[in-house]
Design a protein that fits this description.
Largest interface: A-B, 43 and 36 residues
Helix content of chain A: 25-40%
Number of strands of chain A: 16
Oligomer: heterodimer
Strand content of chain B: 25-35%
CATH architecture of chain A: Alpha-Beta Barrel
Strand order of the largest sheet of chain B: 10-9-8-7-11-12-15
Strand content of chain A: 15-25%
CATH class of the largest domain in chain B: Alpha Beta
Radius of gyration of chain A: 18 Å
CATH class of chain A: Alpha Beta
Largest sheet of chain A: 8 strands, parallel, barrel
Shape of chain A: globular
Distance between the termini of chain B: 22 Å
Strand order of the largest sheet of chain A: 3-4-7-8-9-10-15-16
Number of helices of chain B: 6
Number of strands of chain B: 15
Number of domains of chain B: 2
Largest sheet of chain B: 7 strands, mixed
Shape of chain B: globular
Structural class of chain B: alpha/beta
Helix content of chain B: 10-25%
Chain lengths: 311, 254
């Protein structure tokens, strides 16, 4: 049998393998994005950028609570102007490696999303990820746009009007019907859907002091504990839309990546696993995925995609 | 045995090292390597990284440089502080004479290293630099561990009048087969990197950066593609300079 083909096409862009660095993990500099690409990622996502610089929340911002991570970094970012410089540098470093760049953005208003999208498009990333699902800025920004189908659709439409690049909309699991949100953003021109952002928010209390440990008190829950929820969300979304899905949430191994693909994902995001297995996790999961395909006789990723939907 | 969540310890002893630096010994121990750090949490204040000065008992040297360290300096014997860790990569202890170079409170991780090296029978010389004699920290710890200590002060109030790097050059000339370990201002580390590269000597630095997660995921402590919290905080000079000169980023760090 010939070697399995791990490459996938996401909105017409080729990824050498389906593993994508999820936003918010190591995406703060061009050098780190290049490093993750060299570690074997099929694509990399920069940390979400907003219109103006933000320092984010004070520490503690990220904790290992025993079965996953909980974080409230608070969308720290250098602002769109500086981000364009970082993205240009990143693009130049990634081009020779053949690894596409996803530029993640957020804003406080619908109009703001369009403006940030237009700005970061100057750096010519391969995709724009529209982060409407950060659970850690509710006190400042109000309810995430991903919580309501009309809000999610309005943001998608604003970004669609602003740029011609492929748009990935990142959805929240913290809704009663994620498929309805997915349908709404697809209808307004989303080219792909990323699911899921972190779960919750959750809280961890220090029992000696009686205080929540995160400075923000609450934070988004990620890591292996949320994987079954992420898999179910991707399964639901893939029944509802035709656009490709980047499945994210607790992927730790090649077996987990296969599970996400069988739920209907075209590509698979990796985030918290960087904590558990280091940046080397990308090559490790890629080889585990390859091994699984060899063992089970799959020639390419599409042969596994959506298998869970069969009778 | 690493502590994943902040864990409370009581302060057993506090010692003033200088007008702005204080050493806290806690009522517990962890297992750590010299050069590793812990994240110290004061509830509703903040959480910051500190190198361990010792792991049994857990000992921290804290310089007053901002609101968090100001709050730490208000703590008294019997009060609690919280920490998680240890994190990061410590010093590789080489089986050759050691020259330690500390600038200011950079002495903290080197005091832990000195104790371990001496316990392993390694000869240790320390160049300890500060602005004034009263700013020299942890000198007794180095002496008590059996190191030969060579202070340098910019105002000449104790030891060599000048920089720790002047003293380091002399110590390196006297110990041509030595390995160098350093922590302090980055200008000092750069001078030391040059001194050692001229002499073909191995050199390791402990670096300081703003950190958020301490876990190698948030990217706050990025130094040209190196994660100070996870790949470091101890690096070889070649790693630090190579990263800056934009050589292709490595994947894993060995």
């Amino acid at each position: 049998m010939t070697a399995p083909d791990l490459s996938v096409s996401l909105c017409g862009v080729r990824l050498a393998n389906p593993l994508v660095l999820a936003s918010g993990i190591l995406g703060t500099s061009a050098e780190l994005l290049e490093r993750v690409a060299r570690c074997g990622a099929g694509a990399v996502t920069s940390k979400s950028c907003g219109p103006t610089p933000r320092t984010g929340h004070p520490n503690p911002t990220v904790l290992d609570w025993g079965h996953g991570l909980i974080n409230a970094v608070g969308l720290s970012n250098p602002g769109a102007d500086e981000e364009v410089r970082i993205l240009r540098d990143a693009k130049a470093r990634l081009a020779p490696l053949g690894v596409p760049l996803v530029a993640s953005i957020f804003a406080e208003t619908v109009q703001g999303f369009g403006e940030v999208a237009r700005k970061v498009a100057e750096a010519a990333p391969d995709f724009i990820e529209v982060n409407i699902s950060c659970p850690n800025v509710e006190a400042e920004f109000g309810r995430p746009f991903a919580a309501d189908a009309r809000d999610a659709a309005a943001v998608t439409a604003a970004v669609r009007r602003a740029v011609s690049l492929p748009i990935i909309v990142k959805l929240s699991p913290n809704v009663p019907d994620i498929a309805a949100i997915a349908r709404a953003v697809e209808a307004e021109g989303a080219d792909a859907i990323a699911a899921i952002n972190t779960l919750g928010p959750g809280m961890v209390i220090d029992t000696d002091s009686g205080k929540p440990i995160l400075a923000n008190r609450t934070g988004g829950v990620s890591g292996p504990a949320i994987r079954p929820i992420a898999v179910r969300c991707v399964y639901d979304v893939s029944r509802a839309v035709r656009v490709p899905i980047i499945g994210i949430g607790g992927i730790m191994s090649g077996r987990d990546a296969v599970e996400m693909i069988m739920a209907g994902a075209t590509a698979v995001g990796i985030g918290s696993a960087v904590y558990y297995r280091g940046p080397e996790v990308f090559a490790a999961v890629r080889e585990e995925l390859r091994g699984f395909m060899e063992t089970h006789g799959y020639a390419d990723i599409s042969q596994m995609r959506g298998l869970a939907h069969g009778a | 045995m690493a502590l994943d969540l902040p864990t409370a310890f009581r302060i057993r002893d506090i010692r003033d090292e200088s007008p702005t630096v204080r050493t806290f010994a806690l009522d517990g121990a962890i297992q750590a390597e010299p050069g590793q750090f812990v994240m110290v949490w004061l509830p509703r204040v903040n959480e910051k990284p500190f190198s361990l000065v010792d792991d049994a008992p857990i000992t921290l040297t804290i310089a007053r440089v901002g609101p968090f360290t100001e709050a730490a300096h208000h703590l008294r014997v019997g009060d609690r502080l919280w920490l998680r860790g240890p994190y990061g990569r410590g010093f590789d202890r080489l089986a050759r004479p050691a020259v330690l170079v500390a600038g200011g409170y950079g002495a903290a991780p080197l005091a832990f290293l000195a104790r371990r090296l001496r316990a392993e029978g390694v000869q240790v010389s320390v160049a300890l630099g500060a602005k004034r004699a009263c700013d020299l920290v942890l000198m007794d710890r180095f002496r008590d561990a059996g190191c030969s200590v060579h202070p340098a002060t910019e105002d000449g109030s104790l030891g060599h009048k000048g920089l720790a790097t002047d003293v380091a050059a002399r110590l390196l000339d006297a110990n041509p087969d030595a390995a160098l370990y350093a922590c302090g201002p980055e200008a000092m580390l750069e001078r030391l990197a040059r001194l050692c590269s001229e002499r073909g000597m191995p050199v390791q630095f402990s670096m300081e950066r703003m950190m958020k997660c301490g876990l190698g995921v948030c990217g706050s402590c990025d130094h040209h593609g190196l994660l100070v919290c996870r790949d470091g905080p101890v690096f070889s000079a070649d790693q630090v300079l190579g990263a800056r000169e934009n050589s292709p980023s490595p994947c894993g760090q060995q």
